[in-house]
Amino acid sequence: MSIQEKCRVLDHKEVAPKHYKLTLFSSYISSRAEPGQFVNVRCSQEYDPLLRRPFSIHRVSKDYFELLYEVVGKGTEQLSKQTIGSEIDVLGPLGSGFKIDGKKQIAILAGGGMGVAPLLLLAETLKDKVKAIYVLIGCNCKSRLLCEQDFKNVTDQVLVSTDDGSYGKKGFVSDTLLEVLNDTIGARNLSQSIIYACGPKPMLKAIADISFQKKIDCQVSMEERMACGIGTCLGCVVKTKDGYKKVCDDGPVFDSKEIIWQD
Q1: Predicted confidence (pLDDT) per residue in 55-77, tens digit
Q2: DSSP H helices in 96-187
Q3: Across the strands, what pairs with 78?
Q4: Where do the domains of the chain lie, and which CATH numbers do they carry?
Q5: Are 160 and 168 in contact (CB under 8 A)?
Q6: Which of 67, 161, 198, 220 shows a CA-CA span of 20 to 30 A to 37?
Q7: How far is residue 12's CA from residue 31's CA, in Å, rounded to a whole number?
Q8: What is the pTM of this model?
Q9: Residue percentage of the chain with pLDDT more than 90
């Protein structure tokens, strides 16, 4: 169950150009948040902008939770100016998160750009539940790389790819995924594997195609613009085989086979 509350800022720092990590106090949200869920945040003390902004829950501890976000517009610009000790109006936790399959022993986490945000909490949750975790991170260039060390604290299988080749391998997350499946995990272990992915739609579609070809279960966290965050306004629907579904309520996490991917 979600609540609306004023959360005190415990820490707020820039971790990459225009990328921030925000730590908020809330024993309620931190104790109830599941990997893949999100919160809806009022970015300033005023009502301009009027609409809240959705952010994936990045990490939780006993009495606080963390958000990882990029400054991309007026709302996040105002959020980036919030100082330690100030209070931020938060609604959460919201949405349907990643479903952990206790029968799977190999977890592959694929994040593109800001898509890494919900995957750290997932990795930390899976750490003692599976035999192996592979984390595949993709970004445009080295300066936009996020969370590499955080993931390395969970698993030593962290593979980075950049579009321009400035760090890690040159290419896309989907390319790295194919290499891991073919060369590292191997055909006989595919049935014991599951993919969790979050990132831009083209990346998710490519990963969904690979998972379909390899017959591997795959869950994707969809990124859509949201308004209410609670399933009322119908502003964030995605087309599925069972009709349109609300990303904020039915999702943001879906089975990749459920989505009707647009070219």
Answers
A1: 999 999 999 999 999 999 999 99
A2: 119-126, 148-152, 173-179
A3: none
A4: 3-94 (2.40.30.10), 106-222 (3.40.50.80)
A5: yes
A6: 161
A7: 21
A8: 0.95
A9: 89
